[in-house]
């Protein structure tokens, strides 16, 4: 039986999650509330034998409600994204302030950590000095007590090998490689793999989301922007400058969310089509939209420092709170676009 309460604004978890933490917490949720929580271990496992976990939350198992899919950390440098999604799950399940409309009106499918190998890898390097990522990849000697300036790939072989890893967010089979005339070299952080779905992480996601199929009505990919004061709510397409047929709706929902999720310094999230910042083929959001057929798909990127100081809990707290606010504001934007969160009083629509 759930102990519904107000969890307050503070975080329940003040340490960065890894695969082990996620398995422990999701298993606990499943044991405490088996009627509302279903834990799924995706297949295949990663190269380092880590598990990708999905957490399915349903307030009513006897009826199917609109489904919301939230996926985090394809990029192993977004250390705080798993925390954001687990904290969201805690609020949906146990915080009375989130029951209506968020938990009671939707089925939630949450994947906190897609790239556990890279998350562990980048965290293990945190204390080292930083050098250019291409120098780090190509020069084995330069790796001694150093870390790459950025790491956007998985870890698909021994880290002592030269030029390892595939960028998972370029490994999906939707217009794969349509953005380039020549495949980026495998030392590049944008290397898309030798073929679509060559990475076990993208394979696991493909199998899971196709199993869900049309149960998904709204999808959000959570990552981090690594540039201060550059924070985004983005939507397909990413492989082309051509606008999606529902581009106006996506823009309107994104702008609504940006207003609702105004950043602490008063700024708004930048809202636009993903390809406005550069064409990228083989991305997760394009695949969900173009292949799965989900019409409402977004990428949320609050600011996240590279290799953050893990002892400074304010960094994690700021990122998590911004992420959850943006996610729920997008859901409110969706509700607003369909008049789901309005009541009519004497001929006037009032949002709740």
TrEMBL record:
Q: Tell me which residues make up the Peptidase M14 domain.
A: 15-331
UniProt cross-references to InterPro entries, sorted A to Z: Peptidase_M14
Among PROSITE patterns, the record links this protein to: PEPTIDASE_M14
Q: Which GO terms describe its cellular component?
A: extracellular space
Which cofactors are required for activity?
Answer: Zn(2+)
Q: Which GO terms describe its molecular function?
A: metallocarboxypeptidase activity; zinc ion binding
- Stored SMART domains: Zn_pept
One GO term under biological process is: proteolysis
Q: Which domain of life is it from?
A: Eukaryota
Give the record's family classification.
Answer: Belongs to the peptidase M14 family.
What PANTHER family would the database entry show? FI02848P-RELATED (PTHR11705:SF140), PROTEASE FAMILY M14 CARBOXYPEPTIDASE A,B (PTHR11705)
- This protein's name: Peptidase M14 domain-containing protein
State the organism of origin.
Pieris brassicae (White butterfly)
The root-end lineage is: Eukaryota, Metazoa, Ecdysozoa, Arthropoda, Hexapoda
């Amino acid at each position: 039986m759930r102990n519904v309460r107000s969890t307050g604004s503070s975080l329940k978890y003040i340490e960065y999650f890894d695969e082990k933490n996620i398995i422990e917490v999701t298993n606990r949720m499943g044991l405490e509330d088996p009627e509302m929580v279903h834990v799924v271990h995706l297949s295949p496992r990663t190269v380092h034998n880590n598990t990708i976990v999905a957490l399915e939350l349903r307030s009513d198992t006897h009826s199917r409600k609109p489904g919301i899919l939230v996926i985090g950390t394809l990029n192993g440098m977004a250390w705080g994204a798993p925390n954001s999604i687990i904290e969201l799950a805690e609020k949906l399940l146990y915080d009375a302030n989130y029951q209506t409309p968020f938990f009671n009106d939707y089925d939630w499918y949450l994947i906190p950590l897609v790239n556990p190998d890279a998350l562990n890898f980048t965290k293990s390097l945190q204390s080292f000095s930083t050098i250019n990522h291409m120098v780090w990849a190509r020069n084995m000697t330069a790796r001694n007590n150093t870390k790459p300036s950025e790491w956007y790939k998985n870890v698909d072989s021994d880290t002592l090998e030269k030029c390892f890893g595939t960028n998972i967010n370029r490994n999906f089979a939707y217009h794969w490689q349509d953005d380039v005339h020549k495949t980026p070299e495998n030392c590049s952080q944008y290397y898309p793999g030798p073929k679509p779905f060559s990475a076990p992480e993208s394979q696991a996601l493909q199998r899971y989301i196709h199993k869900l199929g049309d149960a998904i009505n709204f999808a959000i990919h959570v990552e981090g922007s690594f540039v201060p004061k550059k924070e985004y709510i983005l939507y397909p397409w990413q492989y082309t400058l051509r606008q999606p047929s529902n581009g106006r709706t996506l823009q309107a929902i994104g702008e609504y969310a940006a207003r609702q999720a105004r950043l602490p310094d008063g700024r708004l999230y930048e809202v636009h089509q993903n390809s406005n910042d550069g064409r990228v083929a083989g991305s997760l959001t394009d695949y969900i939209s173009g292949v799965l057929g989900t019409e409402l798909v977004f990428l949320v990127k609050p600011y996240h420092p590279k290799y953050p100081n893990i002892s400074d809990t304010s960094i994690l707290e700021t990122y998590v709170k911004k992420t959850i606010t943006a996610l729920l504001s997008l859901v409110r934007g969706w509700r607003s676009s369909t008049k789901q969160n309005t009541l009519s009083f004497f001929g006037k629509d009032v949002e709740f």
